Amino acid sequence: MMTKNKKKELTAAFIAVRAQTEALCAPLEIEDYSVQPIVDVSPPKWHLAHITWFFEEFLLRKFDSNYQDFHDDFAYLFNSYYNNAGDRVIRPNRGLMTRPTVSEVYAYRKYVTQSVLDLLERTEDESILDLLEIGINHEQQHQELLAYDIKYILGHQPLFPTYKTDIKLISEENLDTFIHITEGLYEVGHKDDSFCFDNELGAHKVYLQDYKIAVAPVTNGEYLEFIHAGGYKNFNYWHAEGLDFIRNNKIEAPMYWHNVNGDWYYYNYEGLEKIDMRLPVMHVSFYEAFAYAEWKGMRLPTEFEWEIAAPQIKHGQVWEWTGSAYLPYPNFTKDEGALGEYNGKFMVSQHVLRGGSIATPKGHCRPTYRNFFHPQHRWLFSGIRLAK
Amino acid sequence: MMTKNKKKELTAAFIAVRAQTEALCAPLEIEDYSVQPIVDVSPPKWHLAHITWFFEEFLLRKFDSNYQDFHDDFAYLFNSYYNNAGDRVIRPNRGLMTRPTVSEVYAYRKYVTQSVLDLLERTEDESILDLLEIGINHEQQHQELLAYDIKYILGHQPLFPTYKTDIKLISEENLDTFIHITEGLYEVGHKDDSFCFDNELGAHKVYLQDYKIAVAPVTNGEYLEFIHAGGYKNFNYWHAEGLDFIRNNKIEAPMYWHNVNGDWYYYNYEGLEKIDMRLPVMHVSFYEAFAYAEWKGMRLPTEFEWEIAAPQIKHGQVWEWTGSAYLPYPNFTKDEGALGEYNGKFMVSQHVLRGGSIATPKGHCRPTYRNFFHPQHRWLFSGIRLAK
Amino acid sequence: MMTKNKKKELTAAFIAVRAQTEALCAPLEIEDYSVQPIVDVSPPKWHLAHITWFFEEFLLRKFDSNYQDFHDDFAYLFNSYYNNAGDRVIRPNRGLMTRPTVSEVYAYRKYVTQSVLDLLERTEDESILDLLEIGINHEQQHQELLAYDIKYILGHQPLFPTYKTDIKLISEENLDTFIHITEGLYEVGHKDDSFCFDNELGAHKVYLQDYKIAVAPVTNGEYLEFIHAGGYKNFNYWHAEGLDFIRNNKIEAPMYWHNVNGDWYYYNYEGLEKIDMRLPVMHVSFYEAFAYAEWKGMRLPTEFEWEIAAPQIKHGQVWEWTGSAYLPYPNFTKDEGALGEYNGKFMVSQHVLRGGSIATPKGHCRPTYRNFFHPQHRWLFSGIRLAK
Amino acid sequence: MMTKNKKKELTAAFIAVRAQTEALCAPLEIEDYSVQPIVDVSPPKWHLAHITWFFEEFLLRKFDSNYQDFHDDFAYLFNSYYNNAGDRVIRPNRGLMTRPTVSEVYAYRKYVTQSVLDLLERTEDESILDLLEIGINHEQQHQELLAYDIKYILGHQPLFPTYKTDIKLISEENLDTFIHITEGLYEVGHKDDSFCFDNELGAHKVYLQDYKIAVAPVTNGEYLEFIHAGGYKNFNYWHAEGLDFIRNNKIEAPMYWHNVNGDWYYYNYEGLEKIDMRLPVMHVSFYEAFAYAEWKGMRLPTEFEWEIAAPQIKHGQVWEWTGSAYLPYPNFTKDEGALGEYNGKFMVSQHVLRGGSIATPKGHCRPTYRNFFHPQHRWLFSGIRLAK
């Protein structure tokens, strides 16, 4: 019975998630679907197909002996990084695939969605449900990446086109309020039996020193003070490699900010608009978050400080860079086979972000969720929270 | 009267050329229009808009005082390399422009075509006709580039899609026949008052030594012997920089050739097919053409040897690499302003090709026409003719 | 009195350290002093001058009002990375400076050494002694870098020349022995008032889970088993970026290892010699250390696990990669001015190594010492210790 | 008898050339010998050894059956680009070889010089003398390259050291005088039986149009007018790739020119000195020479125009960029084997310079001599002569 409910719930979630991904893409022109302006930004068409391939590879091929592949070569075209699942198109070439067309990819989606629903109807095998749940969460993660990538693609068009969406920030308050957490032993990591990724498992004790943490993230208005104070020019605020990064790339403000005759504008899905000073600052690299904190005489919280304080602070508008490198928890173990490549092999040279953004699907904003990006990345919905 | 006939002819030519360009693109999917897989290959959408901008910039803006630009930013988006015509999107970013869409570009074409036709109806100014003729020839040059770029885009898809076209090679004969031209003084360059480009002007005398030149270009079958004889491995046949080029790029055969289990195939618009040994070899770089000739104990003809022999030899299937660098003729002069940038500023580091290919619009195959590319280029329809 | 002893001791240490650096370089030819084969490897001449400039900049210019610079431009030539100390030659150009000559640099050393000794004789200012101690430790750190860089320079000569030294490894024992540390709260970081760097300060409590840690580092013999088992080929053992690293650089063994007709040799200061299986493996990147541990079904210890276990384990032959990223301790603070750039600005994208190597000056092998390098570095004397 | 005289003369020339090369290097410090600041600039030590290897490889190994190689690995270390002579150190790594030392290379020179002299004493074989003559000319070419490379190495030291030499320019006169050559058939190429390189052979007729050519090369003063007139800013004077070149490299003046507080200085072996306006301009690329001519409304002469005018014009201070690409003469043939690689394989993508410079050994200044460099090169002693 347990299973029956779970199956019913997951089936509904599956249908909803598949529809939601397509809703995200509905405002796009065909031309917007195929382009890869930088290596990190995948074409929307690729996302649509890749998250479909994920269900095909890990569900249909494993559990449906009658399943016919939609196309012989799609595994090669739409595998992202799973070495255990075979060869694949190298990442920088995703934007060169004009075929299959967008409409063929939608046909692929439809075919796989229906095949999964058919399989779910027939099966009683509980292990399918676990993989289905991973697949749903995987597609949700790509929904957020789609929001980033669509913004990047459109926000770098010379004509700044409009994309209709309700992914919108709201004003922040209580800007100067800090809460105090006292020194002591705390427990972190995912504990109950709800869904989580492997990198959150292994709940364990950590010892934290006394700290204070801001109730709200840093706003555009506050960040602009840093710019005006020459923050991008004073080398003392920056990591050595952060300084190289902003100098080599001539960075003087967050991504999407443009200075037009002395006034600051940004691209925000609607087109180019004046900066709203009350909204949280977004699209900063770890280096910029760190430099801002240095300028304030403070620091970024560690991921554990963040997690312990989470119930008392406002979060969920922007992913917040923490001072913690992305490393395995004690007792971290990887799955056998391709799914073991999901998180573990990225645990080096990246930093943890916590919180969730306005583009994050509900349920991914749990306090134990560990997001991670390289310190120079700015196209994600990243912001800053101060600690001291 | 002269003018009236000329106007009538050019108007008809203009209409035909505009239609022909769109016919070339008709078999494409929307997705194929926007991609730029390498810097040299421009997106078909860009070609469609650029050759339209050319008429807008050099005809409508100059001669039609009532002309309203179709869009304020298109000059910035679709100028290719004319510094005198203002700023422009840098070349490597042509493939990142998802907007304007393909259908907007077709609307742009329609608007400009009609505006030119309206202007032609109203005007009696002969200088317009000269610019119109340049514009027509310019669009024809881009038709050939479109053929190259479409082939590159589709030929580099993992799925090798089909493109319907009658751009097709025919078999060569008389392979081992050479004609003999005797030493003496000859005249080269464009002489009569038909249309030509500035780089052909300045007819002048040249003194040629005795030489023999092949009646037909080298075939796939002949070129395959070079491959089988280890031609790509023997450094003695290659320029030093040619050797670096084939080694660094792991080149072992012409572009589009694939060795599948020991048999040679190529992509030729229809998909992947077995090599036809009787067709002229195509898609070789200057380095390969040179190395092939070295292996045969012969050489490539100079552009003047080619031009003098042209009436007695078969040509027009592939552009033929000559041994001549692309340099100005004696008394070469450039136009004032942007059109002066058409040819002159490229007269360094390139090699001249003569003849014309199956993708070359009629009229561009004249014996004085000087085509030019860098020695490493292979995506054009280039082949080899021997001399000794 | 305290001061008088301290001054006496430090003066003696200063003299000894200055002599020791020159002893390290004594076996070099003039030609070996100036070369910079990769960006990371600085020319020995540059080291000799830079560590001298350090005393000039931070001691003599600050405290000796009569001090005359040895040369106006040496600050520009030999500043390493201190933005607060002014402009400098960019790092990749260190190997292009043929002037000043080696003998001029030795004259510079002599002049500065004598000036420091004169100043010490005259002064009673205790703060000088602190800076002197930093300078001595700084020069000692460069002694170790000199050992790395000399090995790199000579070990990459086609002729594998000999360098006379007693920097030599000894055999390891107790290879399969692990000790067990029980879960609980521990204290880490530098506590007493002996010398340490700023990155070790801020002793604090950490909570460790139960773990086992090897008594000895991994040997060449053990590592060779990993190679023979196809460890460099199996992607499942590697970080994604580690896999890219070994593939792009065609890495199949530690740095300095050469496979000659099926037998493994390495360059080890004496020339090319057969691998000694009983010695600790050296010259591996973090990626290789991690992959080795994965293959063993174990992991690398964290830096805190290492520090707590240090008294019970053998260490000091090779720096041991830990699983910890190089990040600031709680309450880490930087000095004002240039010395604040010593460590803090590197606390991103690097990994901590603990232990000390055969090239590490005595006193730097303390258990709290935090060495740090990027995960791809291999030219340091780095090795592997397992934990589980 | 003929032979006896020839042998005597060549033996004397050999001794003189060997001594002259060492005289060029005498003012260097050991440190200056080993550095390779850019790929094009080889370390003086490498030159010293390479030109010695040339005699060893092509004379001693071929004709002296008792000859013992000085060192087994020197052929590998000091072969420049002769594929037929075996593997070699790749060019960018020449500057990393600290061993053999400078004094070992001088010992190598001495050994080979003596071995050649011994062989000459014993032999009556005339073909040795031809190879000896090539070797002497080869060493002379490297003497000129040594002058360039030494200037580059010292001129890029932050301290601008002095190098004692009598390689010095003298003032130019008759600046605005042009001579007129009438249209007609002329003969070019090397005719008599004196020594020349293979690329000069094949004397042949060329037809030249009427032209005027300047009696003297362009001076620093004249070139400065071009700079002041904004010549480096006006895109209309430049080849497209020339414009990219000066923009990407931020070039605003000839190499070695420095603008210090509004005044122009250059490095000229003595140190940094004020520009002398009456001397010929030196260290310009082909692109700059071309742009200067465009600005003057003139052009560069072709290599044949230059050769025919040579007897009537002053030359020999700077190599003069011609408008001619470096291509084979009619009937050009290469030697069998390694010496066939001497010139032929470079006949693409380079431009011909004619005339000879103050660093050119006597005898290399003959009017038929074809020097060649890539259009962006500036470290040679290159200048400008105008034609129209």
Descriptive report:
The structure is a homotetramer of 388-residue chains. With 388 residues, chain A is of the alpha+beta class. Chain A has two domains: 4-155, Four Helix Bundle (Hemerythrin (Met), subunit A) (Up-down Bundle); 178-383, paralog of FGE (formylglycine-generating enzyme). Helix content of chain A is 35%, strand content 12%. Chain A contains nine helices and eleven strands. In chain A, the strands form four sheets. Chain A has a four-stranded mixed sheet with strand order 10-9-8-11. In chain A, a hairpin with a 2-residue loop joins strand 5 (257-260) and strand 6. In chain A, helix 1 packs antiparallel against helix 4 (102-122), helix 1 (2-25) runs parallel beside helix 5 (126-155) and helix 2 (44-63) packs parallel to helix 4. The longest helix of chain A has 30 residues, at 126-155.
Q: Which features characterize this protein?
A:
9 helices, globular, three-stranded antiparallel β-sheet, homotetramer, paralog of FGE (formylglycine-generating enzyme), 388 residues, 2 domains
Largest sheet of chain A: 4 strands, mixed
Count the DSSP helices of chain A: 9
The sequence of SSEs of chain A as H and E is: HHHHHEEEEHHEEEHHEEEE
- For the biggest β-sheet of chain A, the strand order reads 10-9-8-11
| Beta-strand residue percentage of chain A | 5-15%
Oligomer: homotetramer
Tally of discrete structural domains of chain A: 2
Helix content range of chain A: 25-40%
Q: pLDDT below 50 for ≥5 consecutive residues: which ranges of chain A? A: none
